[in-house]
Design brief:
Strands 5-4-7-10-9 form a five-stranded antiparallel sheet, with no helix packed on it. A three-stranded antiparallel sheet has the order 2-3-6, with no helix packed on it. Helix 5 packs antiparallel against helix 6. With about 350 residues, it is an alpha+beta fold. It has twelve helices and ten strands.
């Protein structure tokens, strides 16, 4: 068989094009970026974060407030982490109010050579939701979110109330209530935004929309470090290795893969403390149980109209509000008391 020279050239061109495309795809960097704000005792601001951007890449943090406050700090990525200097208002703490953070990167052409080798001279290798395209400067980082500050002690107290309620919803699997609760908060920090995505993962999953469920779960950055990171990582672990079906529980995961390392802000810590509530005096448990049974009789006409999906969350919510307990605490009391009945 005779092979035409033009055919050979065409074949080689296709191979070269394929190789070029493969090389370009393999060199792309899907940007992951997670940032958290903290305040010291004087209400001065500090940003810390994690990212997969290369070492020595320079980023610019711009902070603006509704009172006209503005500040700008440059940070450099160091081993997947970034940390700003303390940000103050002329040496004093930030006044209570709403603020916005914007993180941008310097143009690729003025980044260190080691950085250019990874992201490209015009950032052409950067991909993902945190990447913006500039006509002349190329691709750059563009990351924004809002936060607020008030009196540090008051803010801390309010924050704990919010998370105590959210963890109560988590313990009882009421993910729709979590999204509704977060929607009502005017300014959400990053941890609340991550829990919103986590709740949508469950909501979509329960509705049978696996694609949207996984999109919600994996929109949480891989290296996210924050509240309830243990719970988020547990479900990512299930999807990565067991297709959402695991031979062991969340508590087993914490024991095995986190080596029982839990922080006071994590769901694992909350769940552990809630289990200890079983030591409540019998008289207190009886009071809670009798109250819930009374509410059950009123709501369901003594069980004649009982619909678990509708009435159980209502009864738990009423008992939680009435006794000033979390949802998981009243649920624990009710279940323990019910199991003691003959």
């Amino acid at each position: 068989m005779r092979i035409n020279a033009k055919s050979i050239l065409l074949f080689l061109s296709i191979i070269l094009l394929f190789c070029a495309c493969s090389e370009k795809a393999s060199s792309s960097l899907h940007v992951e970026l997670s940032v958290k704000e903290d305040f010291d005792k004087d209400n001065r601001l500090l940003f810390t974060g994690t990212t997969n951007l290369p070492n020595r890449m320079k980023l610019v943090l711009s902070i603006t407030g509704e009172d006209g406050f503005s500040a700008q700090k440059e940070v450099e990525v160091n081993n997947g982490k970034l940390e700003s200097e303390l940000i103050s208002n002329n040496g004093a703490g930030l006044v209570p109010g709403k603020y916005s953070l914007q993180i941008t990167s310097q143009a690729g052409i003025i980044q260190p050579i080691s950085v250019q080798n990874i992201i490209g001279k015009q950032g052409e290798n950067l991909e993902g939701e945190f990447v913006l395209s500039q006509e002349t400067l190329g691709k750059m980082i563009g990351y924004t979110y809002s936060f607020s500050t008030s009196d540090s002690q008051t803010a801390a107290t309010e924050s704990e109330k919010v998370w105590d309620e959210l963890n109560g919803y988590l313990a009882t699997g009421q993910y729709a209530l979590i999204t509704e609760f977060i929607d009502k908060i005017q300014t959400t920090d990053q941890d609340l935004q991550m829990m919103y995505h986590f709740s949508k993962y469950h909501i979509y999953g329960q509705a049978g929309d696996d694609k949207k469920a996984l999109e919600s779960l994996y929109s949480i950055p891989k290296n996210y470090k924050g509240r309830n990171e243990d719970l988020i990582n547990y479900y990512k672990y299930l999807n990565d290795f067991y297709k959402d079906e695991s031979p062991f529980s969340f508590n087993d995961y914490v024991a095995l893969y986190r080596k029982n390392r839990i922080t006071p802000t994590s769901f694992a810590y909350y769940a552990t403390k809630s289990e200890q509530f079983g030591d409540t005096k019998n008289s207190d448990a009886d009071t809670v149980y009798n109250y819930m049974m009374k509410e059950f009789d009123i709501l369901t006409d003594y069980g004649n109209n009982y619909v678990p999906e509708i009435h159980d969350p209502i009864i738990l919510e009423r008992a939680s509000t009435h006794f000033g307990m979390t949802l998981s605490q009243v649920d624990e009391i009710f279940m323990n008391r019910a199991m003691q009945l003959p």
